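Sequence in, structure out.
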Amino acid sequence: MKKILFTLLAGTMVSASVMALTTNDVCGQFVGDLNIGGSLYPSKTVYLLPGAKDNTVTFVLPDFMYNAGKLGNIVLPNIPMDEAGMLTLDNSTLYLDSISERATITIVNGLEDGGIVYNSVVSATEAQILLSIAAPSLPEPIFVLFGGQAVTGRNYSLTNGGFEGEWTNAEPQGWHSFNSATGIMVDYIKNDYQFTQSDQVRPGSDGTHSALLSSTMALGVKANGNCTNGQVNAGSSKADDAAGNYNFSDPSNEGFNTPLNGRPDSIVFWAKYQPADRDASNEVNRARLNAVITTDARYQDPEIEDCSAIKIGTATVNYAATNDLGWQRIAVPFDYSEDNAGKQPAYILATFSTNMVPGGGSSYSEGSINKVNVLDSVYLDDVKLIYNRRLDAFTMGGEALDFTNHVATVADNYCDDCAKFAALSQGRSAQPFIAFDAVHRCIFIYVVADDYPQTGAYELYRIDFADSDTAEVGIKEDLVPTTNDQRPTTNKILYRGSLFIRHGEVWYNVQGQRVK
């Protein structure tokens, strides 16, 4: 066998585990070096996803390039894995649409090069996978070696969205208000009644507590109830002085920021808003959420200068009370800056307030002593970031397929090189990976979003053909996801044999490209 010069990756050798591994132990996102015939490409991403068949994994190498040519996603489904983490796949076939050829792909074990024996083996922390790719137009097989570490330590969620656990200094883990504020006015605004723990919970909650925000009077000025996952700055006696009174997130402000590495589609929360003025038609009675995803930079809300260069996504809502002053579920989509599309998210600052205007809301009755009936209040529960990972459309030969319980049926026989396939996923960060299973003559589509390394969540779809044999690779019940918390309005049209999808006012083709 031709010497393939893998010695650059000798330091990433992975040994077979001495402990019994399951596929759940090893699945995740890995980042490391990709060596193609001796040429090194650093910081490449691969995924190991649960296979649809027991004791198997699905390997995904996105956007594979060779000799400056794009071969597309390499997706190998249902790879057997033993208890030591060794992978075995003999002569799997995969149609590469970019070169219009069927390739033969083998997962290689026991290949010696320069005195080093290479195996394809994975663990919970690292992965080494060696592929041999052969196709008619390639003069010789391409040897591809990936060696990388599991992605850990990244965050894609808000901390303690249910406001549960023990409250310290009248604040729960992950959330802050006036008691931990900074600024020259802190001695005047600290209190234990504007941000408190409540045993009222939203309908269907698994938790036992929520948070209660309340307005009050401070130095004769109306003060909104306010909580944030950043820190409060109290620097002015004037409620609407944005230069002195604001919430902020600072990368150096340990304990008062929330790192965020993904692009969620929306933020959802439950609220029970009860303004002192019960007149629902009074438009000043609006509580507020403002959530801003930023780069690795300091940010404050309200803004006092142009922050467009550091803002990646924004979700804002001013909401009224329900007719019965009860719980309501509110979903707010993030609006992403196209100018900052290439920048990496680093932090999220979320602010909840009893009113949309600083110092706003219902007024106290003159001479009132009992404040119970003259406070604006908001109960908050189960705040969550949502990453949509649903397949919006899948076409075969330009015709849209309909899925029932994540399975579509085609009257034709299986043939992965006789039709054009295209998938469009619903979700800002969701990626659809199409896996051709020539052994069982079916197709799987995995839809994976940014939060997969942390949550392990994904959606799995299957296309059955007339000659499919899927008795051993049915979609297991635990892989069928629940309905997404929020789904944008979607319309579809089939025009001149092509499928187009509309999200809001923007139309996309099945490749996810904007069209007029």
